[in-house]
């Protein structure tokens, strides 16, 4: 496991588990949670799931990683649209697991060039990608020009 030199630490507290509330220590994120009906829960309107929160964080982080890589190549990828789908379900080995489908679209880049940026961001830069590697199936889809 690689060690890091922390530059920033985000802290959040959850109460009530998947049918509770989660909130960042600085109040920047506040979310009421509810297990979706598809998982046997109440699926309360106006609530979210840990998977939604993870998808939003991963998508934003991955977009930043792509832009970081692009800038190293003197390119601008700030208009890239990243859609992250996080699925949850039973694992063959018991318990539950996640899978991720990351769709990156930026028609201002040729397909091969965008794919190269995405792969470099995934393999070398994005901390979410590092954290999931070997633990979560992450599929990358790229849509360039």
Descriptive keywords:
145 residues, alpha+beta, three-stranded mixed β-sheet, 30% helix
Helix-strand blueprint:
Elements: E1 12-15, E2 21-24, E3 30-32, H1 50-72, E4 81-90, E5 96-105, H2 111-125, H3 127-132, E6 137-143
Parallel strand pairs: 5-6
Antiparallel strand pairs: 1-2, 2-3, 4-5
What is this entry, summarized?
The chain is an alpha+beta fold.
Could you characterize what this model shows?
This protein has 145 residues and is α+β, with helices and mostly antiparallel strands. It contains three helices and six strands. Strands 1-2-3 form a three-stranded antiparallel β-sheet, with no helix packed on it. A hairpin with a 5-residue loop joins strand 2 and strand 3. Helix 1 packs across helix 2. The protein is globular. The model has no long low-confidence stretch (mean pLDDT 96).
Largest sheet, order of strands side by side?
A: 1-2-3
Segments where pLDDT lies below 50 for 5+ residues?
Answer: none
In terms of DSSP E residues, the strand content is 25-35%
The topology string of helices and strands comes to EEEHEEHHE
Based on CA inertia axes, which overall geometry fits?
globular
Number of helices: 3
* Structural class by sheet pairing and helices: alpha+beta
What does the radius of gyration come to? 17 Å
Mean pLDDT over the residues: 96
Count of β-strands: 6
The first-to-last residue Cα distance is 38 Å
Main sheet makeup: 3 strands, antiparallel
Helix content: 25-40%
């Amino acid at each position: 496991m690689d060690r890091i030199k922390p530059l920033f630490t985000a802290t959040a507290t959850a109460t009530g588990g998947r049918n509770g509330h989660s909130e960042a220590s600085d109040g920047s994120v506040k979310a009421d949670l509810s297990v979706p009906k598809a998982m046997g829960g109440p699926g309360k309107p106006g609530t979210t799931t840990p998977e939604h929160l993870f998808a939003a964080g991963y998508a934003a982080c991955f977009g930043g990683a792509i832009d970081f890589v692009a800038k190293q190549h003197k390119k601008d990828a700030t208009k890239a649209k990243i859609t992250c789908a996080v699925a949850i379900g039973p694992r063959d080995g018991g318990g539950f697991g996640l899978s991720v489908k990351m769709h990156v679209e930026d028609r201002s880049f040729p397909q091969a060039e965008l794919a190269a940026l995405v792969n470099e961001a995934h393999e070398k830069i994005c901390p979410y990608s590092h954290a999931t590697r070997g633990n979560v199936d992450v599929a990358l889809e790229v849509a360039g020009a």
